[in-house]
Design goal:
The strands form four sheets. The protein has a five-stranded parallel sheet, with helices on one face. Strands 8-14-9-10-11 form a five-stranded parallel sheet. A three-stranded antiparallel sheet has the order 4-5-6, with no helix packed on it. α1 runs parallel beside α4 and α1 packs parallel to α11. By secondary structure, it is an alpha/beta fold. It is 26% helix and 16% strand. It folds into two domains: 241 residues, FAD/NAD(P)-binding domain; 132 residues, 3-Layer(bba) Sandwich (FAD/NAD(P)-binding domain). The chain starts with a strand and ends in a 44-residue tail after the last helix.
């Protein structure tokens, strides 16, 4: 019997393997990095806003407990702690079912390209893998779960979804990157001008860390750039958020603006990045230019890499590139209140039987994916693959409310709906003394 190939050894990929094993199916996890959760390791300095009990999967815990492992019960780990105390032990328990430095470069049906209907569903999948050193391998699979995430496909600074003029050159020069600054990074930027572009939790995390530096070193200049014309739900749901640390994160960033540690610039849609010696200047489509920056941190979200799925048939939303059945639930253009519902096998199915995209990649370009969501996804999908239709249909998760009303599709004006289900949106914060020229 062919294995079920799982692409990615992150939180959802490893959980999927544990579920497959418990169901009597043989998993094979292919990870492009050198170790488990390689993408998480790249933001290992960032603290999660989900507590430990929401970061581990029940079936994975059952696999680990006979090894003497004990589930962490309290606190909010960093990415590095998540790996050390849970994900690395889980990968070790799975043993040689996890292969590292194995990058998937293509998924197809045996002997059938995308255009061929005849006998397609009866053919196994063929997964094309590039190994370290350039060697290639073909693996035959009964099903494929793509849990590769979106970390390596960040959105650019350019407001039209494409890199701004000069953005690639600025990145090559080391002036622009897509990484949340660590404590050491932030300290090295003391007394300098840092521009953060983005509206989500990553941007709020960066702003909060940089504001601590600016409080100690008043010469530090921080500019926070929003594409939208209004603040809207930038600061999150505050005390109405059922994940307290997530709510607190936005409020820390809000106070940094109110205390004039950060200049908030709205309606700035980046057209170009111009190098000026060792600095870079952001230019907006309306002609505005920011002061020269020593570092530009682009935290504008992520998008799915669909390149290696070009020969399988997908049903994706045209806006988000997420499975069509869940796109309406996660679309920031229309999603207005609270949290989204849990998603399962029926929501994640594609016209290609046996292929599922799970984890953060299943949300396409939409933000706010939680580990809990992914664990419920893999539970349902694996039940479907095992033939347990009842378990696949069952919903075993209620997601925490965000406390935020109003979709981010409200791009240039405040929402008019005052009868929302959540707490009132944060008021517009006045800009600090330094403004964009």
């Amino acid at each position: 019997m062919h294995p079920v190939v799982v692409i990615g050894a992150g939180p959802q990929g490893l959980a999927a393997a544990a579920h497959l094993l418990e169901r009597g199916l043989e998993p094979l996890v292919l990870e492009s990095g050198a170790g488990p959760a390689a993408a998480v390791a790249e933001w290992g300095h960032v603290r999660l806003f989900s507590p430990w009990p929401e970061l581990t999967d029940a079936v994975s815990r059952r696999l680990l407990e006979p090894t003497g492992w004990a589930a962490p019960e309290e606190g909010y780990p960093t990415g590095a702690q998540w790996i050390e105390d849970y994900l690395a032990p889980l990968a070790a328990a799975l043993g040689d079912r996890v292969r590292y430095r194995a990058r998937v470069i293509g998924v197809g049906r045996n002997g059938r390209d995308r255009s061929v209907d005849d006998g397609r569903a009866e053919q196994p999948f063929v997964v094309h893998v590039l190994r370290e050193g350039g060697g290639e391998e073909r693996i035959t699979a009964r099903a494929v779960l793509d849990a590769s995430g979106t970390w390596h496909a960040p959105n650019p600074a350019g407001a039209d979804g494409l890199p701004a003029l000069g953005e690639r050159v600025a990145a090559e020069a080391g002036v622009l990157d897509n990484r949340i600054p660590s404590v050491a990074d932030a300290a090295a930027l003391a007394g300098k001008h840092v521009v953060v572009i983005g509206n989500g939790h990553s941007a709020a995390t960066a702003i909060t860390e940089l504001a601590r530096i600016a409080k100690r070193e008043p010469a530090t200049q921080i500019t926070w750039v929003l594409r939208r014309g209004v603040v809207g739900n930038t600061f999150g749901g505050g005390s109405a958020d059922e994940l307290p640390e997530r709510g607190a994160l936005g409020q820390h960033a809000k106070r940094a603006v109110q205390d004039d540690l950060v200049d908030l610039v709205t309606g700035f849609r980046t057209e170009a990045v111009t190098l000026d010696g060792n600095q870079a200047i952001l230019v907006a489509k309306d002609g505005r230019r920011l002061d020269p920056a020593d570092r530009i941190v682009v935290l504008t979200g992520f998008r799915p890499d669909l390149s290696f799925l070009s020969e399988v048939r997908l049903d994706l939303d045209m806006r988000l590139q997420a499975p069509s059945r869940i796109a309406g639930e996660v679309d920031p253009n229309v999603h207005s209140c609270g949290s989204v519902r849990a998603t399962g096998a029926a929501d994640l199915a594609h016209p290609e039987p046996g292929l599922f995209i799970v984890g953060a990649k299943s949300y396409g370009r939409a933000p706010t994916f939680l580990a809990l969501t992914g664990y419920e996804q893999v539970r349902s999908v694996v039940a479907e693959l095992a033939g347990d239709r009842e378990a696949a249909r069952r919903v075993e998760l209620e997601l925490p409310n965000t406390g935020v009303c109003g979709g981010s599709g409200v791009f240039d004006e405040e929402a008019n709906d005052t009868g929302s289900c959540c707490a009132p949106a944060p008021r517009l914060v006045q800009l600090g003394a330094r403004t964009a020229g």
